[in-house]
Design goal:
Distance between the termini: 111 Å
Strand content: 15-25%
CATH class: Alpha Beta
CATH topology: Rossmann fold
Number of helices: 7
Order of helices and strands: HEEEHEEEHEHEEHEHHE
Helix content: 25-40%
CATH superfamily: Alpha/Beta hydrolase fold, catalytic domain
Oligomer: single chain
Strand order of the largest sheet: 1-2-4-3-7-8-9-10-11
Amino acid sequence: MRRGSFALLGLVVACSAPSPAPPAPSVDVVEVPTVSSVRAPTVSRAAPGAIEELAVPGDLPVLVVRGDSAGTRLKTVFLPGSCDRPEVYLGALRAAAAKRGGLVALQGDKPCPGPDPRLRRWSSDAAASAARIEAALQAVGEEDTRDLTLVGYSQGAERAEWIAAKFPGKFKRLVLVAGPIVPSASRLSGAEAVVTMAGRGDVRENMALGARALRKAKIPAIYMELPSHHHGELDPRADASFDKAFEWLDQEHRAPEAARPAARAHLVAPRRGDDAVSSP
């Protein structure tokens, strides 16, 4: 009886044990790309007016101010001064630039002496600088890199002038801020319109005389004063000055040749004989 019970119990255990799983079918393993390895359909999702750093293949990163309106073309390029960083100036530029499609700011192509690798200056190679601008705009996602506005501060203003002289059909409008030289009518002969600017800490005569010489050569130009008190900085109130400068460039761009003097008269308010438009 006991032996029969053990036999019956063994049969029950054997029947209740799970059957071994069948071998898995052979399949090819496909590696799914990670999110970081997939190229996004858009370059950036930064909020309008935000400043973001963007990598440029084969070059230094750039800073980008995104436009307020989707679909508006980014066509403004900023070149900072010697041994300085572009972010120092973008606080005073980004609101006005964002209203007009945004802005891309490059770093100089040569390092400055000293331990800080972020401080850079510009070489005299205008063609190389223009190629870097082209690459930066393509990295931002701009396919149309024609008809640009070039903004330069200090050494960046001087380099902007030489770049426009070499590529006048590409860089048609300029904002030259606190430059070390008097803007030249011969170098800017192909410009559609030029704004020169300076503050109390800058050599204002360079920019005022430059605008006067450009107008004498029949190149639309205007000099505006900034609220800045020291060279190498832009007062936060300068955003209104840059908005006014871009507005004047927009008017010159839209106005027919015969109507351009009237368009300039809307903003020009000569003061003490220096043809300056002061900042608020």
